[in-house]
Structures are given as C-alpha cells and as structure tokens.
Amino acid sequence: MHALLGRVIYFISFFNTKSSALRHELVLAPPEMITEMLDKEQEQLNERKKLAEELKSEAVKLKSIHKLPQEAMIYRGIRGLKVLFKDTLNVGRDYYVIGAPRISLELMGSTFWENYNLKRVQKKIVVKMLFNEDLRRWSKVIQSKKTIIRFLPKKFDGLTETIIYGDKVAFIVWTEKPIATLIQDRHLAANYRKYFQALWEQAKR
What we know:
By secondary structure, this protein is α+β, with helices and mostly antiparallel strands. It has two domains: 2-67, no CATH class; 71-202, Endonuclease, Chain A. The chain is 50% helix and 27% strand. The chain has seven helices and nine strands. The strands form two sheets. The chain has a seven-stranded mixed beta sheet with strand order 3-9-8-7-4-5-6, sandwiched between helices. Strand 8 (168-173) and strand 9 form a beta hairpin. The longest helix has 37 residues, at 31-67.
C-alpha cells in the first residue's frame, strides 16, 4: 500500500524566499494515471504468474523423468536364469527373443523349456522368437499359435540371446556357466523392439 501511494502522490517542495521556510504541497495524480498504474501492476502480476506456471510444469516433467525405473541386475548360472525366465512370466506381456542358440537347450534341458512354454501359453503370453538355425528341428516341439518362430541366417549363430519383455531387456551369454544382464529401461526396450522387427522381416520361416 505504501508503495502504491508513493506512485500516485507527489510531494513538491519549494523554498519560500520571503519566509525562508520549507513547505510541502500534496499533488494527487489524475484518476486516469492511477488506472494505468493498476493495469500495469496487474499485467506484471499476470506475467509472473505465467512464468511460475511454466516453471512448475517443467519441474513436474523433470520429476517424472527421474521417477522412471532404471536398474540393472545380474543373473548367474542355471538357477539364476530360471529366476530370470520366471520374471518373464510374472510380467505377463508378449515378448521377443533374438538368437536362441542350441546350447541353451542343452544347459537348461528340454523338460524345462517345455514346462516353461506350457506355463507361458496358459498365461496367454505370445512370443516371437528368432532362433539359430541349429534349433530348427527342436522348435517343432514348442511351436504353436502363441509361439511364432523364424530363423536367423547362419552368420548370426553365436552364444548370445536377447529377450525383450515389458520395459526390460535381458542379454544372456550361454557358456558353460551362463550369465545374464537384465536392464530395466523403457527407451532401451523400445529400441530393441525396432531392432527385432528389422531382423524379423529378414528371417526365414
């Protein structure tokens, strides 16, 4: 209030040579000027409010980005990989596999894979798989409407397998003592789905 009065009231001081006394005269600003000043104050207030809303919006966006789950886990040995494959069932969404090698069948055993795929089908989870060529014969054991399999060219044969499910990507190295790295990141998962689709279009039936 004091600041506003300071803007609309002017003090004019002058020296009276006859009386040698300092006198103060109040001069009120015209009503139009008061209205203009109030309008200007309101305009500045609106600008500050708009800026505050923009800053609030950006803060909410940054907060949501930092809340995105991002983590990595390591699974070692047969027991560790069983935990990983159980997680694909718990997530319960359709998923994609790139490069399942024959050694994965030898290490885990046919019985494990048959039981795993039976549980998956019961949960109505569809999987698209890009097998290595050396699993073509065995693939007939698990192939169904919910298990769609194609085969990579022999040049892609190797010991690695990639599984994309939900917002997770698992990288498995099938050695005598297999190890898997699981990364939870929705952007990474989205990129690997695109990569899978590119390979799928080139794969053999």
